[in-house]
């Protein structure tokens, strides 16, 4: 090859390399995960006592009838939270707790309001405490005390009541 042809050859190779390297650049898209949204809900709590209460209990395993950190059920968790944070004494059983609240639209819920579910038929059999931005905290039978997304279809299908004690 002549020097001029060799020069053109290398220019084409270099130019191709530059163009191909630009085409393989990976673009990162920020997607919010469920965990990051739950962390945001916790960070946006108005009550720092509520924040501390939830972090102290997060991960405690579920135990039917439980009322301490060796295991707690959903109504026991709501019972303790409402009593310690808001000074409200609720009945011990979720079905009775549902009867004690003033019904509220889900769109009007405030921090500390209660959300009730019926996983096993018509009667209320699960309760959680609303936080903000569609998140609530509860004692899940599978995952223990956890902050969860109320907008998940699994919860929307079984949500039967929401409201406040006052």
Automatic annotation (TrEMBL):
<protein>
    <submittedName>
        <fullName>C40 family peptidase</fullName>
    </submittedName>
</protein>
<dbReference type="InterPro" id="IPR038765">
    <property type="entry name" value="Papain-like_cys_pep_sf"/>
</dbReference>
<feature type="transmembrane region" description="Helical">
    <location>
        <begin position="6"/>
        <end position="24"/>
    </location>
</feature>
<dbReference type="Pfam" id="PF00877">
    <property type="entry name" value="NLPC_P60"/>
</dbReference>
<keyword id="KW-1133">Transmembrane helix</keyword>
<keyword id="KW-0472">Membrane</keyword>
<keyword id="KW-0645">Protease</keyword>
<keyword id="KW-0378">Hydrolase</keyword>
<comment type="similarity">
    <text>Belongs to the peptidase C40 family.</text>
</comment>
<keyword id="KW-0812">Transmembrane</keyword>
<keyword id="KW-0732">Signal</keyword>
<dbReference type="InterPro" id="IPR052062">
    <property type="entry name" value="Murein_DD/LD_carboxypeptidase"/>
</dbReference>
<feature type="domain" description="NlpC/P60">
    <location>
        <begin position="44"/>
        <end position="166"/>
    </location>
</feature>
<dbReference type="InterPro" id="IPR000064">
    <property type="entry name" value="NLP_P60_dom"/>
</dbReference>
<keyword id="KW-0788">Thiol protease</keyword>
């Amino acid at each position: 090859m002549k020097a001029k042809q060799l020069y053109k050859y290398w220019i084409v190779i270099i130019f191709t390399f530059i163009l191909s390297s630009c085409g393989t650049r990976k673009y990162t898209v920020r997607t919010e995960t469920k965990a990051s949204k739950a962390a945001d809900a916790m960070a946006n709590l108005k009550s720092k006592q509520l924040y501390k209460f939830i972090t102290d209990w997060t991960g405690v395993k579920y135990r039917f009838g439980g009322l301490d950190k060796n295991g707690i059920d959903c109504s026991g968790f709501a019972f303790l939270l409402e009593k310690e944070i808001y000074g409200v004494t609720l009945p011990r059983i979720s079905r009775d707790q549902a009867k004690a609240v003033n019904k509220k639209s889900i769109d009007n819920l405030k921090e500390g309001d209660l959300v009730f579910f019926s996983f096993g038929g018509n009667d209320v059999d699960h309760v959680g405490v609303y936080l903000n931005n569609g998140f609530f905290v509860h004692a899940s039978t599978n995952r223990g005390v956890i902050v969860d997304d109320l907008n998940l279809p699994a919860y929307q299908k079984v949500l039967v009541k929401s409201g406040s004690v006052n």
